[in-house]
Model the fold of this input.
Amino acid sequence: MSDIPKHIAIIMDGNGRWAKEKGCSRIHGHKAGSSRVREIVKCSGELGIKVLTLYAFSTENWKRPKDEVKALMELFLHYLKNEIKYLHSNNVVFRTIGDIEVLSSDLKKEIENAVSKTKNNTGLILNIAVNYGSRSEITRAVNNIIKKGLIHITEKDICDNLDTANLPDPDLLIRTGGEFRVSNFLLWQIAYAELKITPIYWPDFDENVFKNILEEYSLRERRFGGVNE
Ligand code: FPP
Done:
């Protein structure tokens, strides 16, 4: 593939509809979705993608039924416990964005462990958005800036105070499940991202679908507001 994006962000949508169509519970859909994560992480590492940001739980997802929220948190915990070995041995750097302070102490501990264990790795950065909302992130960034006493602020000051500080902006934002919205995800960072909405539900999103999207991306002409001669 000629032009591989440095940073890919994915809104993993459609778990609920996938499950409903199969006559199963929404939670079953999230379980199936969680199993897809490893395949896409593996493929991203092999393709030389630098950063993969996955939207696992938004600041608005707390409005879901209690048992669904609980299941999502448990799935994330389960994922961390099971995958850390694989991630570390495959040179993956594990990070999160979002406000993790309100998560359970078990989950926070597991996140901190994964972050510190993998921090010196040099391969793919796997960035999981958990309790993440772009408006909340920007608000936290502005409050940080005020605390630092800055009066005249630049775009760089904002970038440096976002959860994604030091990461390149996403080149490509993929949303599975066919909805045409960005759902409070990386609003600042996707200013010039290419967008790909696929009708495929996240539990059906496999390596082949991913690679086809990357082929399509490599044919796009990115102008960043300028003109290409
Ligand atoms: C959206 O589907 C999906 C989520 C809110 C959760 C995504 C979580 C996972 C894929 C599993 C856990 C993640 C990790 C990193 C292990 P939806 O429920 O809104 O689907 P619908 O639009 O069909 O209802």
Q: What stands out?
A: The first strand starts at residue 7 and ends at 11. Residues 93 and 120 are 7 Å apart (CA to CA).
